[in-house]
Sequence to fold (193 residues):
Amino acid sequence: MNNIDNIKEYAKINRVPIINDEGLVFLLEQINKYQVKEVLEIGSAIAYSAIMMAKNGANVTTIERDQKMYEQAIKNIADLGLTTKIKVVYKDALTAFADVASKEYDLLFIDAAKAQYEKFFNLYTPLLKKGGIIICDNLDFHGLVETDLTQYKRHLRQMLTKIKKFRTFLINNPDYITTIYKIGDGLSLSIKK
Ligand code: SAH
Ligand code: MG
Fold:
């Protein structure tokens, strides 16, 4: 027996960083508002967000590089009877373009390694339809992005610096209209002009 509550419970126990409730509400609201039919997700984890988007009517193509996550994602999708709605690509998203390029998408949801967001953005936005949207998760990184970064160890500091740079990149990108929301763990919404 498996359902969404079991998947959330598994995520909690195993510390899988699935989108939080507030972020999920925002994500699903945009899917309805922009009538999203085709989603490309970077970072499946155990397919929690993919399953919620599919339950809202979208077809989801999602990329995951970690074997354990990938296997759990496949299991959860099968258990919920969503194999025809969700396709999981088991690869590093930096090298998965050819695997997902056979269609165009209404929504690109970026939720994988935070230091690579700009690379994911540049690689996959060409697959967006005109008027398509990009949503990025964790741009506040548990509230740490807006604190004094000098207090953190090198690795964390570098990651937070990258997120800051990515936020600036988004806001200044002339091809998109971007708003960054202080909801969930910090979410951006960019609309392709
Ligand atoms: N979207 C999920 C949570 C994803 S957590 C949800 O809200 O339910 C981030 C995931 O991205 C992790 O499982 C991690 O293994 C994966 N990931 C990180 N970098 C990646 C990359 N370069 N390519 C593919 N997957 C990546
Ligand atoms: Mg996230």
Notes: The two ends are 45 Å apart (CA to CA). The chain is about 40% helix and 20% strand.
